[in-house]
Design a protein that fits this description.
Elements (H helix, E strand, L loop, with lengths): L1 E6 L6 E3 L1 E5 L5 E2 L16 E3 L4 E6 L1 H11 L8 E5 L1
Antiparallel strand pairs: 1-6, 2-5, 3-4, 3-7
Length: 84
């Protein structure tokens, strides 16, 4: 599993509306199983106070399937993304 975390390190609240992996073509891979028992994802949008965190998990299998489906090389760089 890959876990993406967004932590508010500032002193003002911030609202996270999206957590994803962004592909080279700008498309985003998001979690479609937000209520897994082992690693539940944060329900978004979520307002974070100083020091609070939002998280999303993706399986390696789902990431691999996405990379293959999009026709990317196995070395394609997927970048973690948090949108406020």
């Amino acid at each position: 599993m890959v876990k993406i975390e967004a932590i508010n390190v500032g002193q003002r609240p911030v609202t996270i509306s999206e957590l994803a992996l962004q592909a080279p073509n700008g498309r985003k891979l998001v979690s479609y199983m937000p209520f897994r028992d082992a690693m539940p994802d944060t329900q978004l949008p979520k307002s974070l106070a100083d020091g609070e965190m939002a998280a999303m998990s993706l399986s390696y299998k789902d990431i691999e399937a996405y990379v293959q489906q999009e026709g990317f090389a196995s070395s394609a760089k997927l970048v973690p993304l948090a949108t406020d």
